[in-house]
Amino acid sequence: MNPSLPRRQVLAAAAAVAASMAGLAAPAAAQTSAWPKQPIRLVVTFPPGGAPDILARLFAEKAQLGQPVVIDNVPGAGGNIGADKVAKAAPDGHTLVMGTVGTHAINGALYARMPYDMVRDFAPVAHVASAPNLLVVTNNVPAKTVPELIAWLKANPNAASFGSPGVGSSVHVSGELFKSLTGTQMTHVPYKGRQFAIPDLVGGQIQLMFDNMPSALPMAREGKIRALAVTTAKRSAAAPEIPTVAESVPGFEATTWFAMFAPAATPKDVVARVNAEMQRVFKLPEVADKLKGLGLEPWISSPEELARFQAAEIAKWAKVVKDSGAKAE
C-alpha cells in the first residue's frame, strides 16, 4: 500500500468538507451582504421642516445599514405624489417612505381617485411616532380659548380661513372635524407645505391652523402665534398647560402619526432588518429625548402591529371624512 494514500485521502476529504461548508455559508453571506447594494432612498411626502421630515432625518443620521440613507422630499397632493413613487418603486428595499396618517389612512376616503392602494401597494415596516396637532391662531385673532374661538367664528361665518400643508393631511382633516362638531364655517386653504402656510398665519393672511405639534409648539412659545388647544384626547406631556379641544368640544380627537413603509413584495428579511435598525435608532436616549421635547410620542412597532393599526385607522378616518363632508379640492 502506498503510505501516502491515507494522507491524500484525508486532505481530499478535508477539502471536500471545506468546499461543502463554503457552499453552505455562501448563500447566507450573500443574503446578508446583498442588501443594501446602494444608498437607501427615504421619501418624505412633505417639504422639509415638518414632523415626518424631522423623523426621517433622525433615522438617516443614526442608521447603520452599510449604506447611507438619503432623504428625498417629494411633496404634493396631500403626500400622494411621494407615496405613489414608493408604491411603484422596485421592491428591493432601496426605496422607503415615511408615511403619514394622510398618505396611509385618510387619503383613500378623501380622494375620489387614488394613484395607489394604501394597503396592497405597501409592506408595513414600523410605526415610528404619533403626535397631537396644535390648534394655533394668528395673534390678531381675539380668541384666547377654544370657546372664544367658536363664538368668534360663529359671529363671523366664512370670514376665517384655516391653512394646512396639503389636502388629506391630518392638519386639514382636524380642521374639517372641528367645523363639523362646532357648526362653524371657515375656508380651507391648502399649501404645498407648512413652510408656506406658517408665514401667512403669522402675517394674518389665514387665521388659524391645526399644525403638527413639533412644528407649531416652538413658534407658539416664541410668541409668533398663539396656541389654544391640542387635538388628542389627553393633554400632551410636552405642553401640559395647553388644554385639549375635547375639553370644550366633546368627542373631538385627531392624532397624527408617522410610519415607515416599503413597496409591496419587499423581502421579509429586508423589512425585518430595517425594523430592527429603527428599533435601535429611535430608542437611543438622545433621539428619544428629542422626540419627547418636540411633543412626539415614540412607538416603534413590528410590521404586524403596524398592519393592524393601519387597518383600524383607515376605518376610523373614513367615517370622519364621511361625517364631515370633506373632499379633496
Automatic annotation (TrEMBL):
Keywords: Signal. It comes from the Bacteria. It holds the Pfam family TctC. Residues 1-25 form the signal peptide. SUPFAM superfamilies: Periplasmic binding protein-like II. Belongs to the UPF0065 (bug) family. PANTHER family: BLR1237 PROTEIN, TRICARBOXYLATE-BINDING PROTEIN. This is Tripartite tricarboxylate transporter substrate binding protein. The lineage of its organism: Bacteria, Pseudomonadati, Pseudomonadota, Betaproteobacteria, Burkholderiales.
